[in-house]
Design brief:
With 436 residues, the chain is an alpha+beta fold. It is built from 9 helices and 13 strands.
């Protein structure tokens, strides 16, 4: 069996082609799933124009040669080794961190799908994202000044341009979100200067034309004719609002319980934070009866009764439709409730039509999306698992009393990768990340 995988996309549902938006951790998670399930005969990778996808191409070639050499906890070392092979050892750690971080932040919200208002101003989320990009930019420019002359061209094309130009584009939309037209215009002019340098100056113009993509101002899936600035928001908010919800990163569990051949394991570098929690091995037997490996979270509830739980997971295909794609939730030692983890699944290729379901012996109708939690972005422009790179699941839980209880996330099917839990999402102050 074979695999066809994109790290560059020219086509629907939306372009992803200007700059690298893929982390080694994400590629490893996807290819490991393929490899472990027997899809190991041929892998075809769509890489677009090769540049600026040098790092992911290199990782894919290394991984495909011997997947067993790259467990999840060795990806960080791969990044350092990659940087060292090009720039030597002195700055390898810092270069690896910069390339990892810009790729990670681009994966969170890809440049072509940036929009004004994606990040919440009133909760401080927009400013935090601006500051995060700004810090990465400053680190990169500081390191640029330290690079030896003979390495400056390579550093610009492999590190400085992708990191700083990505930061600039994200900051344009964040500045527009926060009503700052002056900063937005300054960054727009800098983007042109940086692109001209890449095409015309570095390596004597060797890479002229490689950075001709228009990348600011997408309004449909295809590349716009020109880079254009977004409209600036009129911002009235003055005080930061603290959302009322409770948020827990999946890796901040209280206890972890293995079961049979399966265990939850930390997958560093995945998702929007330090990492996600996934099942090892990904070929573990499904456990629909509630005896699967468990992540436990001790939580203090201020009231009893019906509450809402949102679970953020990485977008995952329904790889075994006859079996399903499921995860379990249990409060204390109560009955396990099964969530159909296809909530919010975007059926790009119209697989789950009524006609196909009627003809198929295994396809099941898709569940209703998590439209009761606003952080899922349901029916909001440019918000879905495709654009957000996160799928939100929603379930009602019954808390018997106020006080301390344990939320248990139970493995049913092994492909689920969990990022975050949010209890009683604040629909009055929804944000892209959920409470941080």
């Amino acid at each position: 069996m074979g695999l066809y995988y994109h790290i560059d996309m020219n086509g629907g549902p939306w372009n992803d082609r200007w700059i690298n938006t893929t982390t080694a951790a994400k590629i490893r998670e996807q290819l490991n799933l393929a490899y472990q399930t027997g899809i190991d005969r041929i892998w075809i990778i769509n890489v677009g124009d090769l540049k600026p996808k040098e790092m992911p191409i290199d990782f894919i070639m290394h991984y495909a040669w011997n997947p067993d050499d790259y467990p999840a906890d060795k990806i960080d070392q791969y990044m350092v080794d990659w940087a060292r092979s090009i720039f030597g050892g002195e700055y390898a750690r810092e270069i690896a961190d910069i390339v990892t971080e810009y790729s990670k932040m681009n994966l969170e919200r890809k440049p072509e799908v940036q929009r004004v208002g994606i990040y919440n101003v009133e909760t401080g989320e927009a400013q935090r994202m601006y500051d995060r990009w700004d810090e990465l930019e400053k680190r990169t420019l500081l390191l640029s000044k330290k690079m030896p002359y003979e390495m400056q061209d390579a550093f610009y094309q492999l590190v400085e341009y992708p990191a700083v130009a990505s930061a600039g584009l994200a900051k344009i939309y964040l500045a527009a979100t926060m009503g700052d037209s002056v900063t937005m215009q300054t960054l727009f002019e800098r983007d042109k200067q940086m692109t001209d340098k890449y095409n015309k100056i570095i390596a004597g113009g060797k890479w002229d034309g490689m950075m001709l993509d228009k990348h600011i101002g997408y309004r449909m899936w295809s590349m716009p004719d020109d880079n254009t600035l977004p409209m600036v928001s009129k911002v009235k908010n003055k005080e930061i609002v603290e959302p009322s919800e409770t948020a827990i990163m999946a890796h901040d569990y209280t206890r972890r319980t293995d079961s049979g051949d399966a265990r939850w394991t930390f997958l560093p570098g995945l998702g929007r934070g330090k990492g996600n929690m996934g099942i090892e091995p990904v070929t573990a037997k499904s456990r629909p009866d509630g005896d699967g490996a468990t992540l436990e979270y001790d939580v203090t509830f201020s009231q009893s009764g019906k509450q809402k739980l949102a679970l953020g997971i990485l977008p995952t295909n329904d790889v075994n439709p006859a079996r399903g794609l499921r995860v379990g939730i249990r409060i204390d030692n109560g009955q396990m409730h099964t969530i159909d983890a296809r909530q919010g699944y975007v059926d790009t290729f119209n697989e789950y039509t009524k006609e196909n379901i009627a003809r198929s012996k295994v396809l099941k109708p898709l569940p209703r999306p998590a439209n009761d939690i606003y952080l899922s972005g349901f029916r909001q422009p440019m918000r879905s698992e495709v654009f957000d790179n996160l799928r939100w699941l929603s379930i009602d839980i019954d808390v018997p009393t106020d006080g301390k209880h344990t939320i248990k996330v139970v493995m049913i099917d092994p492909e689920i990768v969990v990022e975050k839990l949010i209890i009683n999402p604040d629909n009055e102050h929804p944000s892209y990340h959920g409470k941080e």
